[in-house]
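Appendix B. Extra example for self-study. Work through it before the problem class; the solution is given directly after the inputs so you can check yourself.
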Amino acid sequence: MRQPPASLDPLFKPRSVALIGASDDVARIGGRPLRYLREGGFKGAVYPVNPKRDTVQGIGSYSSVAALPEVPDVAILAVPAQGTVQALRDCADRGVNAAVVFSAGFAEASEQGRLAQDEIAGIARQSGMRVLGPNCLGLFNAGIGYYGTFSAILDAAFVEPGPVAVVSQSGAYGSHIAHLARQRGLGIGQWITTGNECDIDVAEALRWVIDQADVKVVMAYAEGIRDRDTFVEALEVARAREKAIVFLKVGRSDVGAQAVSSHTAALAGSDAVFDAVLRQYGAYRARTTAEHLDVAYACARGLYPAGNRFGIFTLSGGFGIQMADDASACGLDAAPMPEAAQEELKAMLPYASPRNPVDATAQALTDLPLMTSYIAAMLEKGGYHLFAGIFGSGPASPTFSAKLRQTLRTATAGHEGRVLALSMSAPAEIVRAYENDGFLVFEDGSALVNALAALVWFRRSFDAAKATRPAAPAAMRIAPPHGALSEHEAKSLLRAAAGIAFPKEALVRPDEDAGAAAAAIGFPVVVKICSPDIAHKTEIGGVIVGVRNEAEARDAARTILARARDQRPDARIDGVIASPMIKGGVETIAGVVRDPTFGPVVMFGLGGVFVEVLKDVTFRAAPFDVAEAQRMIHEIRGFALLEGVRGAPPTDIDALAEMLSRLSQFAADNAELIESIDLNPVLAMPRGEGVMPLDALLVPCRSGS
Amino acid sequence: MRQPPASLDPLFKPRSVALIGASDDVARIGGRPLRYLREGGFKGAVYPVNPKRDTVQGIGSYSSVAALPEVPDVAILAVPAQGTVQALRDCADRGVNAAVVFSAGFAEASEQGRLAQDEIAGIARQSGMRVLGPNCLGLFNAGIGYYGTFSAILDAAFVEPGPVAVVSQSGAYGSHIAHLARQRGLGIGQWITTGNECDIDVAEALRWVIDQADVKVVMAYAEGIRDRDTFVEALEVARAREKAIVFLKVGRSDVGAQAVSSHTAALAGSDAVFDAVLRQYGAYRARTTAEHLDVAYACARGLYPAGNRFGIFTLSGGFGIQMADDASACGLDAAPMPEAAQEELKAMLPYASPRNPVDATAQALTDLPLMTSYIAAMLEKGGYHLFAGIFGSGPASPTFSAKLRQTLRTATAGHEGRVLALSMSAPAEIVRAYENDGFLVFEDGSALVNALAALVWFRRSFDAAKATRPAAPAAMRIAPPHGALSEHEAKSLLRAAAGIAFPKEALVRPDEDAGAAAAAIGFPVVVKICSPDIAHKTEIGGVIVGVRNEAEARDAARTILARARDQRPDARIDGVIASPMIKGGVETIAGVVRDPTFGPVVMFGLGGVFVEVLKDVTFRAAPFDVAEAQRMIHEIRGFALLEGVRGAPPTDIDALAEMLSRLSQFAADNAELIESIDLNPVLAMPRGEGVMPLDALLVPCRSGS
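Solution. C-alpha cells for the complete assembly:
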C-alpha cells in the first residue's frame, strides 16, 4: 500500500501540466492556476483542457485529456464535484501520474460526498495515480515557477522561493501563513495543502519535502494525522538531517476538538499524546500563528547554537531587564560577563552596567565606537552562543540606521557562527538590510527570545537523536491472552515478557494455607483478592493491609474470599495474593493506552494528588529507549519530588526509566493484543533500590480474548 | 509630605513653558523640545533661556529664568548634570511651579550623582516645586500640543491625542510603546516618563492621569514602586471609574531583578507580591510588549463585555478550531449556538458547521448575503457578549475589502454594545477603515482572543469592586510585644486581637500536672514544648504526638522539658502545650510577611508537597475582605483539592476565607509591630466544620521588641 516518497515527484516537479476546466477568467478557480503557471516562470508544457474553447487565456486548449499531445505529469482538476470522478477516470486512463482536486463537496459535506471521495480513493489505488485533495488549494514549487493552486494570495504577488516548506491540511491556513511569510521576507520553496486527504496526507507530503535539498524548515499544520508510520519516519528523517519541523496542531481544547470532528474527517487522537509525539521525535509545536512564523523564521538560516548562553546588549536598562526575564522563562542562560571583561567595559563608561544584560546606556547612541567595543567584547569574551541587541525604533531613522548597521557589522565581524539577533521596529526595507548583514530581526523582544530558545531546543533534539543510544531492552511477543487476566497473571506476564521486576508475592489458592505462604513472604504483608474478573479490588473490600502474623493472614484470606463470593458470585476466583508491605519511596503511576492515531502509548506521572488534582502526567509513543524515558520523567511538573524534598532521599530515577522503556518495548511488540496496562502505584525507592510496582492491571484487546 | 494630585497640573497643562538650555540644533536635547513646542500646536507662551543667544530657532531668547517676563508654569531643563542643581534653584527662586530634568548622571551613575539628586529632591521639598526626573525623557500632553520631551520618536511625526495615557519609569520603553501605538493608529493623550523619580514617581503620575476625563486606559511601566499608598489609591480610583490600567512590570526573574537593582534605585519588592497586588486592585499585568499594546488597544474603546460568551465566525474550519483552542485557554466560553438557530443556518448551507465556531466555509466569500445572515444570526440568537470574525488576508484585497466591509456593517448593525473583533491582515489604511466601522482589528488570532479575555477580566474586576462588600472583620491594635512570643502567646494574641479560632489547648507549666491537663483536653493529644526562644520545636525533639493517657502525657512532658533544658539551656521555658490530635482536613498554610514595597502581605497555599515542590502559594496586600480572600484561595493551582478529590468531602472554604481576611486586618492594623506570622499547618476541615490552625509563630519587628 505505502508508496515511496519519489511517487510524489510528478506532483511536485512536473515537466508538463494539464489544467482540466481551464477558464479565461483569471479570478475563477479554473483561471487563476493558468495565470499563475503562465506568469510564474514555469518552463514545462501547460495544457488547458476545456471542451468548449479553442484557446484559454491565449493558449491553445484541448477538448479532453485523451486529446492531449502527450501524457502530462500532473492534471489539475478545476471542475465541479459532480464532474470530478469522471475527470479523474479519464486522467487515470490516459496514464497521468498525479492529480490535484480542488473541488469541495466531498466527505466534508455529505454522505453522498463521502461516497464520491471513496471512489476517488479507489481510482488512485487501482491506477497508482497519486491524488491531492479533494477540497484543497493545491500546491506550488516556487523554484520552478510551478503554481498549481488557486489561492488568492498570489493575485498580488508571487511568493519567492526560499528555505521554507509549508505543509498544511487547511488551504486557508496554508495561504495565510504564506501571506505572512511573504510580508516577513521569508521565501517558500514548496507549499502544499492536503485538504480531505483521500490519498496524499500531511505525513506523506512532509516526508517528501524533507527530502528536498533546498528545504531547511517546514511549517506544518494539521488537525490530526492519518498515517502514523510515515509521519514518525518524516519526523525522524528531518531530525537526522537537522531540518526543523515547526508544527501547529489545532484541537487542544474540548471545543476545538469538537470542531475538528465536525470540520474534517481526520481522526483526532488525544492532543496530549500528539504533543508528546512531536516532542519525542523532535518537532517543535507552535502555540500561535505568530509563534509558528517566528520560530520558522529563526530556523530558516539553519544555524543552531551550540549552547544556551545568551548575551543581551541594550541601551536602556528597562529593555534589558525585560529580555532577561523572558530569557529566564524560556531557559536561556543570561550568564554574566567575566569579571575582567566587566572591569574593562566599566573603565570605558563608568555608569554602564557591564554584567548581562550589558547596558551601554543611551551614551552609546552618540558614541558608536563605544557600542562597537561593547558588542565586540560580548562576543569575544562573553562566550555567548546567542546574542541579542535591543534597538527599539532607532533603526527606523534612515540617517541613523546606516551608521548603526555599519557599527553592528564591525562589532560582529568574525562571529558569523553565532546566532545574532536584533529587537527593532523599522520599515521592511530597513529590516531586510539588517537581515542581509546576518541578523535575525524581531519587532517584539519576547518573540525574539522565544524563537532563539526554540533554536536551542532544536540543537539539543538533533544532538540527542545522534547520541549513541542504549539498546532498547528486550521484550517478548506473548501469546494472545484468553480473556481478562488477574493481577497475578498480569504481573507474571509482564515479569516474563517485559522484564519488569515486581516484589515477590505468593498466590494462595482457596484451599491452600495463607498463613504459611504469608510467612514465607515475610510479615507484615498485604492480602488481596486475585481474580481476572475483579479489577477494582477495594470496591469489594478485597484488600487487607498490615497483616502481621499467620493467624491474621488466614483470617484475612478467609474474609476476602467470603466477600468476593458474596459480592461477585460469578467471578472466577484464583485465590488471594500475599505480598510484602513496602515502606518509603515516592508514589508514581505508569501505564499503556492505545491512541487511535499513534497506537500504544506509555503514560507516566506522580501518583496521589499530583495525578488527581494536577493531571501531572506525560506520554510517549512506544517503543522508546532509556534516554527518552529519562526525558519523559524529567518533564513532569512535580519532578523535584523524585529528586527528594524535605530531606527525603533522591529516588531511583534510572530504574524508573529502565522500567518505562521496557514497558514501551513490550507494548510495541504486542500492540495488537493489549488494550491497556496500569501499574499503579509504582513506588520509586531511594536511589540504588529500584522501583516497586505494587499492582498491575492488563486489559487485552477484545480481538485477543 | 504627600501632595494633592492637582499639584501636577502645572507640569501636565502649563500655560507657559521655559526651556533652559534651549538650542538651535533641533537634533540636540535642548533643541528638540523647542521644535516640538513650536510645531506641535502649543498655544501657551514658550520662553527659550540661553545666556549666549538673543534668539533660538527664531524665537526671542532670555538670559536667565530671572529675566523672563512672567513666571512660567513649568521649566524644562536641558542642561548638563553639573548645571542642574543651580538651574533648579533659580527656578525655585523665581517661583516656578514645576520642572523637568532631562539630564542623566545622577543616582543611576555614581555616589556623587546620588548626592546631587538628593539636593534636587531637597529643593523640590523646600520650595514645593514639583520635579520630574532627573534622567527622564520628559512628558507630553498631545491634546494641547505640549511636547516637553526630547524623545526622538517625535522627529518623524507627532503622536495623535487619544484615549491612552502612558506612564513609564523608562524613557526608552515609553518612547518605544508610543512608537508602536502610533503604528497601530492608537492615540495617546498623556505621556510621561519618570526616570530617577527624585520627586514625582510612577504612582503619582498614574494618580494624575486617571483623573483626566479623556483617559480611558493607561499603559504603565515600572521596575518597582516607591509610594505604596498613592499607587494603591491610583489603582482603586481607576477601577472605580472603569479605566483600565495595563501594567508591564519587569524583574520577574532572578537575572531580571538583579539587573533592576543595578539599573535604577527603585526598590524592587518581591515580584510575586507585585503581581498579586496588581490583580488585587484590578490592574492587568502584561507579560510582553506586544500584549501590553494589544490589551491597551482593546481597552481604548472603554467597552467591556457583560459576560464571557464568545462567538467565532470563520470561513475555514482550521482557523475556527485554532481560535476555539485559544478561547478555552483564556477562559472565554465558546458556547454553541442554540439548536434551532443551528438548524436555520444548516438549512441555508448544508455543509456549514453552525455550532461555534460557526464555519460558513469559503462559500460565504462568494455569497456575501449568506455571510450577513450567518453573522446576524450569531449576534441575534447566539447571546454572545464578544464576537470575532476570522478573515485572514482577504481584506487586503482593495476590491473585495469594500464589499466585505459593507457586509460586516450590515450584519452587525444594532449590536454596537457588543465587543466586535476581526482577525485579519491588511495594510494600515484598510485596517483603520474597519476600526472606524466599530471593529477591533488584530493580525494574530491568538492575540485577539487574549485581548478580548482581558476585557472580560476588567469587567469582572470593575464589578467585583462595586459589589457590596462585607465589612472587614474587626481586628485590634495590640501592644508592642516584648520580644519573641511562644506558640501559646502567639495563639492567644491572634485569638484575642484577630479573632482567629485555634483548637483549645492547655499550657502546662513545668511544675503542673500534664496528665490532668491533657485529660481535660481529651485524648489522644499532642504535647509540644512551649518557649519563646524555640521556634523550631521538632529540631530539639520538642513534639510528641499520639499521647493516649495521663501517664503517657506526664512522660511526654517530662521528656520534652528535659530535652529542651539539655539542648537549649538558655531558652526561657514556659512549659508544654497539650492540644488535641486533629484528624482529617486538607493541609494548608497561611502567613504574613513584610514586603519592602507593600508592607504586610498575606500568603496562602496548600501545605506539604504543594508548597515544597510546586511553590503553589498566592499573596494579597493587607487588609482585604472575605470576597478578596475567596479569590485568593481560588487562585492556587491545587484548588481542586479544597473542593474534594478522590471522594473526599469539600472543605470549609468560607471559614478559610474568613480567617485569611481576619489575619490581613490584624496584619494591617499592627503593621509596624509584626515582622512575620506563620500558621502552619492550617487544616481546612470538611464544609461547616471550620479551619484548624495547629501551630502559630509570630515574629515581632525588632523595633517592637
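Self-check: Chain B touches chain A through 85 residues (CB under 8 Å). If your reasoning did not lead you there, revisit section 3.
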